[in-house]
């Protein structure tokens, strides 16, 4: 199927892949499992109220984290740091709770090399880029696409 959301990130940045569930009240995390996967490759696993990274793919070691304080309210978004070109993929966010049905969403991550490295950089522009700290750029999945594109295009011109 089609991904529910598409995210864009540049190499070296940190991106937040959005995944939320709407359920009444607080979630019992001790009885739930959260998988972040690419196909059968395990990117992040949360089980019995804590991260369980024994079987995490080594490419993602030390680069993934969840918003543990927000998970009980249904925020299962994954923070992925130091983005690399091979990270471009369709990620599946799969949430299983003991008593309810499994919820799954797909997020496509598109990774680009910042265009500044392709042109001949002018000294002033180059120093400006190297001093920039990678901003957390959560994808705005809830907005209609046309508005999302306007926002995205607006961001590139900052």
TrEMBL record:
SUPFAM superfamilies hit by this protein: Immunoglobulin
GO terms for cellular component: external side of plasma membrane
Gene Ontology biological-process entries: regulation of cytokine production; regulation of leukocyte cell-cell adhesion; regulation of T cell activation; T cell receptor signaling pathway
InterPro entries assigned: Ig-like_dom, Ig-like_dom_sf, Ig-like_fold, Ig_sub, Ig_V-set, IgSF_BTN/MOG
Presence of the UniProt keyword Transport in the record: no
GO terms, molecular function: signaling receptor binding
UniProt-listed Pfam families: V-set
Keywords: Disulfide bond, Glycoprotein, Immunoglobulin domain, Membrane, Signal
Subcellular location: Membrane
Coiled coil residues, start to end: none
Domain Ig-like: 12-108
PANTHER family linked: BUTYROPHILIN (PTHR24100), SELECTION AND UPKEEP OF INTRAEPITHELIAL T-CELLS PROTEIN 10-RELATED (PTHR24100:SF148)
This protein's name: VTCN1 inhibitor
Organism the protein comes from: Aramus guarauna (Limpkin)
């Amino acid at each position: 199927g089609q991904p529910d959301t598409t995210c864009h990130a540049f190499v070296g940045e940190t991106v937040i892949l959005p995944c939320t569930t709407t359920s009444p009240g607080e979630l019992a995390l001790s009885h739930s499992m959260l998988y972040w996967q690419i196909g059968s490759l395990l990117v992040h696993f949360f089980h019995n109220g804590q991260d369980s990274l024994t079987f995490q793919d080594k490419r993602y070691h030390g680069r993934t984290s969840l918003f543990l304080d927000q998970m009980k309210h249904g925020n299962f978004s994954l923070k992925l740091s130091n983005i690399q070109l091979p990270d471009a993929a369709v990620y599946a966010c799969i949430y299983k709770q003991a008593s309810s049905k499994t919820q799954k969403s797909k997020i496509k991550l598109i990774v680009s090399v910042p265009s500044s490295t392709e042109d001949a950089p002018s000294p002033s522009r180059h120093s400006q880029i190297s001093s920039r700290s990678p901003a957390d750029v959560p994808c705005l999945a809830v907005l209609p696409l046309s508005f999302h594109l306007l926002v995205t295009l607006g961001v590139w011109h900052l």
